[in-house]
């Protein structure tokens, strides 16, 4: 944390940093899947019963 404070001047709460109106917001594409999930195999589905 000291490196951040020395470089940028202050510690900032995470909630403020990721707030799109007050801070930087979340990185673009965060939480998006690169490809859709594959359907479960019959073997895997039988384990969930």
TrEMBL record:
Residues 2-39 form the Lantibiotic dehydratase N-terminal domain. Residues 29-49 are annotated as: Disordered. It comes from the Bacteria. This is Lantibiotic dehydratase N-terminal domain-containing protein. It comes from Nonomuraea muscovyensis. The lineage of its organism: Bacteria, Bacillati, Actinomycetota, Actinomycetes, Streptosporangiales.
